[in-house]
Amino acid sequence: MTILIKNIAAIYNVRTENNLLRGKELATLPMIENAYMLIEDDCISDFGSMDNIHSITTPENTIDATGQFILPTWCDSHTHIVFAGSRENEFVDKINGLTYAEIAAKGGGILNSAGKLNDATEDQLFNEAWKRLTELSSLGTGAIEIKSGYGLTVASELKMLRVIKKLKEKSSLQIKATFLGAHTYPLAYKENHEGYLNEIINEMLPVIAGEKLADYIDVFCETGFFSPEEMTRICNAGKALGLKPKLHINQLNSIGGIQSSIELNAISVDHLETMTDQDIVDLAASNTIGTLLPTAAYFLRMPFQPARKLIDAGCAIALASDFNPGSSPSGNMNIVVSMSCIQMKMLPEEAINAATINGAFAMEVEHETGSIMKGKKANLIFTKPIPSITYMPYAFGSNLIDKVMINGMII
Ligand code: NIG
Ligand code: FE
Predict the structure, then answer these.
(1) 64: part of which helix (H) or strand (E)?
(2) Does the beta carbon of 322 sit less than 6 angstroms from any atom of ligand 1?
(3) Are residues 381 and 355 in the same domain?
């Protein structure tokens, strides 16, 4: 099947090379105005100026994109979309002034979701996650990373990862799976950290590796959760089985997680609400991507990530939604991009690059998606007619997407 898209007002993030963008490079978003694009089967085969369209032989299908912009679909490299139920009661508790510790003492937080997930069947979890995935793809997300971490027992962590595996098999989106057994200590191991570490390392990881249930390993490295030393032990066990680290770091405190993650050669360090100057210098000098999750900071009423300082120091930055029931009950990447511009002073070009090509690098799908390049999947957002690409983050909250194409098919 060949599809010709013609009269495109402009195509954005058009590239001839696949590079992770850092520092100043993030501010350049290459584009072609008054353009065409040719799609063969599921891939982008050609594109260029409408002036050169005569070289195209007759396509089987033609789409007229007059007045519309095209950009690559969002690459959301950090989510927890497999969860059971919701936690809006805690949302109200927070409005009423209860602290995180008070909510946890009432049975809230990660353990609340773990209880609900334990009671849910694999089919229920799949159906709930499928609905979320369907909504996200209509909002322009074409590739997504999904974590376990609401199981916290051998059986439930495996249940979550099997749901993610089924999502991978059934969905046309690119999906990566991350094992987050070290999300918190389950009640049974509250006073026995060594016991839970052993369970992760000796009981969960071998089955996960044996059944190829995960691509990455994650740890919530935070005061009161897992220390950098505990994270290093867990990640080294995961690495020995082929799982690369992608980590929850510096959400609430800076406790050496950045430096330990860099030593582990982590693909990414995610959250980064709380960064010291040294953390920023160290991250900028490393190959590790800093993934910012502004909607989590927003929802928890925390200071936003220091995006400007990170970019100006030369860090490679990605943006992701952190979609989860506790700290970011939305996976809308359009809002993430908007919020990054409004609250973190990222330029629209920087935010779009961070949410597409750098997000693709943060889940190692940069050869398939994340930019408009010949041979990459035809994963495209078609905007409604809008005055400029900058209008997308500017007019926050409006749905400016006309249609989404995944693997050459309009969804
Ligand atoms: O990424 N910070 C750790 N984990 C999640 C929130 C977990 C929850 O509250 O359910 C996050 O924000
Ligand atoms: Fe998270």
Answers:
(1) strand 61-64
(2) yes
(3) no
Distance CA 144, CA 140 (A): 11
Task: Read off the tokens for 174.
Answer: 């690119």
Protein residue closest via CA to atom 9 of ligand 1:
326
Ligand 1 atom nearest residue 296's Cα: 12
Between CA 379 and CA 405 the distance in angstroms is: 5
CA distances from 343 to 61, 171, 210, 307 (A): 42, 33, 43, 9
Angle (CA) 364-68-295 rounded to 5° is: 50
Residues 386 and 335 occupy one common structural domain: no
Residue that is written with structure tokens 């749901």 in the block = 163
Strands 74-76 and 141-147: parallel
196 lines ligand 1 (CB under 6 A): no
User: Contact 178/218 with Cβ under 8 angstroms?
Assistant: yes
Say if ligand 1 is within 6 A of residue 251 CB.
yes
116 C-alpha to ligand 1 centroid (Å)? 15
Query: What is the number of the ligand 1 atom nearest to the C-alpha of 324?
Result: 10
Structural contact between residues 160 and 148, judged by C-beta atoms closer than 8 angstroms? yes
Do 187 and 108 belong together in one domain? yes
Q: Ligand 1 pocket test: which of 268, 302, 327 has the largest number of ligand atoms within 8 Å of its C-beta? A: 327
- pTM greater than 0.85: yes
- Give residue 324 CA to ligand 1 midpoint distance, Å: 7
Order across the sheet with 289-292: list the strands: 74-76, 141-147, 174-182, 216-221, 244-249, 268-271, 289-292, 317-319
Residue 107: what pLDDT? 84
Q: Is 34 left (phi over 0), alpha (psi -120 to 50) or beta?
A: left
Its domain, for residue 392, covers 2-72+371-410
Question: Are 255 and 390 found together in one domain?
Answer: no
Domain membership flag for residue 145 = yes
The Cα 231–Cα 111 span in angstroms is 20
| pLDDT at 339 exceeding the cut of 80 | yes
- Residue 366 counted as domain residue: no
How does pLDDT run across 219-273, given as a tens digit for each residue? 999 999 999 999 999 999 999 999 999 999 999 999 999 999 999 999 999 999 9
Ligand 1 contacts CB of residue 113 (under 6 A): yes
Q: Which of 324, 328, 330, 336 to mutate to test the pocket of ligand 1 (most atoms within 8 A of CB)?
A: 324
Task: State how far the Cα of 267 lies from the Cα of 283, in Å rounded to an integer.
Answer: 12
